[in-house]
Amino acid sequence: MGTGRIVLAVTGASGAIYAQRLARHLAQNFDEIYLMLSTQAIDVALTELGVAINRKEFSTQPWLGKSFRNIHLLDEKDYFTPPASGSFRHDGMIICPCSMGTAGRIANGVSNDLVTRAADVCLKERRPLILVPREMPWNLIHLRNMTQLAEAGATILPASPAWYGKPKSMEDLADTVVARILQAVGVEQNLFAQWMVEE
Length: 199
Hints:
By secondary structure, the chain is of the alpha/beta class. A six-stranded parallel β-sheet has the order 3-2-1-4-5-6, with helices on both faces. Helix 6 links the parallel strand 5 and strand 6. Helix 1 crosses helix 7, helix 4 packs across helix 5 and helix 4 crosses helix 6.
């Protein structure tokens, strides 16, 4: 039975639109969202979306276009928060987008901030951990890290949009990736048509 809680981490990789649209849908489908934003993620949101996120006076309004009271922003350096502990039960953790640096640290058991610690907890507790890398191409180190993460139980879900639904906008295109992420954490959605399935 689900807990109604989900952990979302946003790193400084390009692809801020994925995190933005994913956060909206998570807020509509889960009771509590524990959010981690790296400093670089905030910089990327400003560059790619033109959105200024204020960590000290955090509100989802500028970022998501609506105030969601069930999204709780955590300090990326604060280990005294629920996701840092294995005793805290939740329905999974999503890192979207996931930088290769973050993936590398998780793959090698290096917990130097709340994101990597919470991910490490997911692996040791056998909870769903979904990494959404966007960077390309991958070098051999990236590939080995991804293999190691998959072997440890993580789901690697690259930000590779689908085209068969004939997306009409950037948002539609991003939603083809968001839909697969939602599927991975058990959320039914209708963001885009399933392949060869009549609605």
